Amino acid sequence: MEKKKLYIQTFGCQMNVQDSEKMAAMLEDAGYDSTDDPLGADLIILNTCSIREKAEQKIYSQLGRFRALKNANPRLLIGVGGCMAQQCGDRLARKASHIDLVFGTHQIHRLPELVGAVGQGSGCRVETGFYDRVPSLEIPAQPHAGRVGTFVTIMQGCNNYCSYCVVPYLRGPEESRPLPEILREVETLADGGIREITLLGQNVNSYSPSPGGGPDFTDLIRAIDGVVGIERVRFTTSHPKDLSPKLVACFGDLASLCEHIHLPVQSGSDRVLGMMNRGYTAEGTLKRSLRCAAPARRSASPRT
């Protein structure tokens, strides 16, 4: 039987990119081949972002364009996932009445089931419930053939509750994957030809699968450095309050760890940082950075 066609359009962060890869992998097992052409698709999914208002405007505009495709082909299914779907829920379904499915950030693992239900005429489904543990974290993404780099999600959610940020409400509290599970995924990727990985999370340097003890983010990076075939390791994004001498030392000790760090300091004003509820001061961050940099310079070894 000929497979149906799936078109996924991704908005937002790298984690959304990897979530889209997971969706494509699951739906391939359910009988869908990916396509770059929405005109020939049987199923269209928008994986959305809600961090900036402009991102939401783009998504509504795209949904408006897809309405014409739906009118021309009533059997076409349109789904909206990701952070905007989580935030808007029923409101999104009412505003764009031609869509068939709205699914939130904790519902990705149910996508084949939900697509099957709306395909059988169940009517528009809105699924935005949270789980205590995020089931989709356990689903490995399938990078496109021929790629040498890919993303690996190590944790999801955030516990910081910065005053301006919706992430804790849309992605939920922090949940970290077990280190052995991540290591197995990286080893599988290396066996498949991947040479560069980027570790993903809303706040990767707070990675802690066993709060109060057990491995931390530096232990994970050092373990991945030992995987045969992995030549480059990156990570995003990190939080200034969790910058530690142990983490900075990794840049001097590990040949695979690329000499780059994304550290969103947000502001040089302590008053503004306090209003933002960032949990650190400009002066404290500068002092901590200098303390961290000193041992890193002493331990740094030549790289090839």
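Above is the first protein from milestone M3; the second protein from the same milestone is given next.
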Amino acid sequence: MGIKPISMFKNYFKLAWRNLIYNRLYSLLNILGLATGMAVALIIGLWIWYQYSYDRFLPDSQQIYKAGLKGTGNNGEVYAYLVSPMPLAEALRRDVPGIKHAVMTDWIKPHGLVAGEKKIYLPGIIAENDFLKIFQYPLLKGRAEQVLNDPYSIVLTESTAKSLFGNEDPLNKIVRIDNQNNLKVTGVLKDIPDNSTLKFNYVIPYEYLIQNSDIKEYLNMWGKITSNVYVSLQPGVSYAQVEPALKKIIARYNPEEYKHSHTEVIMQEMKDWHLYTEFKNGVATGGMISYVRVFSITGILVLLIACINFMNLSTARSEKRAKEVGVRKVMGSQRYELILQFLTESFVITFAAFIVSLLLVQIALPSFNTLTQATIRIPYTNVFFWVIMISYLLLTGLLAGSRPAFYLSSFRPVRILKADRGAVRSRKMLVLIQFSCSITLIISTIIIYQQIKYAQERPVGYDQQRLMMTDASSDLKKNYPALKNDLLQSGVVTDVTMSSETVIALRNFSSIENWPGKTPVEEVGAAVVFVADNNYFKTMDIDLAAGRDFTGNTSADSLNVIVNEAAIKRMKLKDPIGQVIAYNGRHNLKIIGVAKDAIMESPFSSPTPTVFMYSPGGARFITYRLSPKVSTTKAVDRIAGIFGQYNTAYPYIYKFADEAYAKKFELEMLIGKLTGLFSLLAIFISCLGLFGLASYMAEQRTKEIGIRKVLGASIMQLWALLSREFIVLVMISCLIASPLAFYFLNNWLEKYVYRISIGPLVFILAAIITVGITVLTVSFHAVRAAMVNPVRSLKTE
């Protein structure tokens, strides 16, 4: 009994292999189309797996959270963000049962490190002592509970330690930071994985920052929202258990803020940090997760298109196998045996396609990783991967082969002798589905690129050309007047300024608490930029809409502010010059000027309300504009020498404003490139199917073509005869895809404040592209069939 099924499947495999070899063209089209679809689905699946893997490698990651605030704005809309006031960490430790650790950290930013002759400039994190107890990154040297106890200690990652000390043991060695203080190496961390939200090269105790900056005055200031606070819960404690205590913290320590906006503390679980970065109505709903969902659907659609190809090409060849089915039925074969035979053929082709798809993915991954800045690999040694792949293989084989198997096995003599109109209709329906999916992807690609182009061409409100930025080290800040003078005297720089923020990023936010005409419940959230001289707006080329600039004198400007148009609009001030406001606990600030709006954050959003204050001590970035009369290369070389005079401990590092601004489009550009790539592959797979179907139809209508040629039909008329059906199907697909694409893309565009409107030209262009590709694909067989000698066409079989 056990031998018969084995022999039967052995026989089925032989038949499948012979059929594969006998129909080489259709086998090649099937395998290539299915392999491409499987490769796209697999590479998208690996990318999605990579996105979900972020931060989950850490022990107890499900107990780690990031704190933030949620409240109600002036318009009644609920806002939320994951930045906290500085005293929050201590309040969480003290007042919330169930919290194991809570730490405050500064932003991850670069510092200069020197050890002997080795100099590096890399980003690191400044954090409170329990940081490595929450984030249990593997420590190669040192103990997590001790390494950050000394304010003048530093924990290096493995690669940073190697850069500074080579193969020497770095423990207890001295590293000089920012040419100011010496830090002792107390620990070495294994390098932070690429799929980590927090990426840094060293950790410095927060106590060091307190002792070496003016940050101490802000430690108890609840209105200054500038810190990142991370929390770990006790084992077995859930977020729901600590949430009631979280809601009471702002009411207890900042009752005025709570009264105005009902602000409360929220926390986001670590697994969501990478995927959910956008908040709407106080809930994390968007971010990378939106693109994960989009590409999940894209992978399924491309695989579905490939499976439809398989079904269509297999059923189109059904008449060739009708006699085989009839003979086998006469010989006593049961329908289930025929189904098993044809499913075996499907699985043989699917397995071959799967092997080819693995090869395609392996070849494509290096380029894909470069494009997505990821480190994705095929996990060949992972058992779970192979369980998924086998399930994936079986499901694809069943999906691709189900219709041919059940259709061919159901043949009856009467259907063999007559044209099967039902099969023709179903093939047409599958082609419609296939091209509707492909056209939707094409329209998506066009809309995404239009949206990116629209934002890229948006006026930014300042001149980006030849504008350069350099981090201000302690030596540069100390010598800023002399540095500025030397840069201006060099002839390669026209303007210089120093400020707390770069022109392409804002990080310091608080609230405008009082202004003329303010109602008791109103409050305006605004960024603050501290400027070090009266040359800021001139250097950036930001015009003043009203009023005057700072004088450059600390005593004269300490209570003066300049605000941008967005802030004036939010405060509804009709005559702002000379009006007095309160910002971040500072009262009696007089508005002396109104700056025109500049895009200093997202190019897709409205300008951020911003307050500019004169405070040389708060500046951290030097910005300077190159002279248009000097080549960039010559200017950079000259500037490097000047910076080197005042910053001897570190190399000269700079950024161009236009290049830094362009990076704001990286995610959208990546999505556009991936969508375009997958659209091309979807069309390629669909055209493989059309190529096969056109070949089959030309073969089926050989005698009809011969008769029409004898009766005087031209090649053009015969081409139109064979192409018309496919062109009509594709045009109907355009009509189906257009409203679907409009609905989904219009919803996608709603997340952008600054966005395009979708016009009809997009759908017309997508239709022209698709019809053009279809005509090119079908024409090969149509023209070849039309040019065959009618004598050959009319020969009897």
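Note on the second protein: The chain has a mean pLDDT of 85.
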